[in-house]
Design a protein that fits this description.
Layout (H helix, E strand, L loop, with lengths): L1 H25 L6 H18 L3 H4 L4 H21 L2 H8 L2 H4 L4 H8 L2 H14 L3 H9 L1 H23 L12 H22 L7 H4 L8 H32 L1 H10 L1
Helix pairs in contact: 1-2, 1-5, 2-4, 4-10, 4-13, 8-10, 8-11, 9-10, 11-13
């Protein structure tokens, strides 16, 4: 599985590079180098989560499993969106294939902030339900599907925040801090439960081989604390930055001119 993931990501990198060079040749000032770096960084993070040795640790440590999900949703997904993947990948694949892609339907549904928030929240909560968690750990196919849903949910969640070029804003900028803050609430509740419930929620880790000298309950508490701290910083830091930008005198003056 790790080899297949690596090959697929390498193929995607080549397609993106082809599209990036084609766009740069036609419009030199449109697609900057930092977008290329962001996209490649996102692919590297994606590989680290599902193709590196970390992927083999998630069956033994809930903390490693949690780290995978966090990398997929909050590192790989936003970096890839910063790379303007839609227009770049479309220029990287044969143009005769573009007409078969349902681009209009995806754009209408995918960029709505309420839809994006619900998809991300439902994905996080659903896969932490013990029954679904057990299914994902017992089947390699379901485990791969779980990773895929976390990554897709991450793309959906960050789409309204990043607005990957050349997409247009469909809601006011001041909504972004509220959007990000509300996203922390279900994650905080889940991480607090894992940290303070004083019982092992997922029986899989009671019988799994331990990689380090840590108890299943200690591992679960570490995973919950990791999620709590990680989500708080990853969501609230950009919310703070956007709030400062909105309240800056230059921004207010620009908004007044537009009115």
């Amino acid at each position: 599985m790790a080899l297949l993931v690596t090959l697929l990501l390498m193929a995607m990198a080549l397609v993106y590079l082809r599209g990036w060079y084609r766009l740069r040749s036609a419009l030199p000032n449109v697609l900057s180098v930092w977008r290329l770096r962001a996209f490649m960084g996102g692919l590297l993070a994606l590989w680290a989560a599902v193709g590196s040795p970390l992927a083999g640790m998630d069956h033994h440590l809930l903390t490693a499993h949690m780290l995978q999900h966090l990398i997929l949703m909050t590192v790989a997904a936003p970096l890839i969106l910063l790379g303007a993947p839609a227009i770049t990948l479309l220029h990287g694949i044969p143009q005769r294939l573009v007409r078969f892609l349902p681009l209009d339907a995806v754009e209408r549904i995918g960029i709505h902030p309420v839809f994006c928030w619900l998809v991300a929240t439902a994905t996080v909560i659903a896969w932490h339900v013990p029954y679904l968690f057990a299914i994902g750990m017992q089947s390699e196919r379901w485990h791969a599907f779980e990773h895929a849903t976390f990554f897709v949910a991450g793309l959906a969640f960050w789409w309204p925040v990043i607005r990957p070029w050349p997409s247009l804003a469909t809601w006011p900028r001041w909504c972004i801090p509220l959007y990000l803050f509300l996203a922390t609430l279900p994650c905080d509740a889940l991480s607090a439960f894992l940290t303070f419930c004083n019982r092992v929620v997922y029986p899989h880790y009671l019988s799994s081989h331990r990689l380090f000298d840590i108890s299943p309950l200690g591992d679960q508490e570490c995973a919950g604390a990791l999620m709590w701290v990680w989500v708080t910083f990853v969501y609230l830091i950009p919310a703070t930055v956007v709030t400062i930008q909105i309240l800056s005198p230059q921004r207010r003056a620009l908004d007044a001119e537009m009115v």
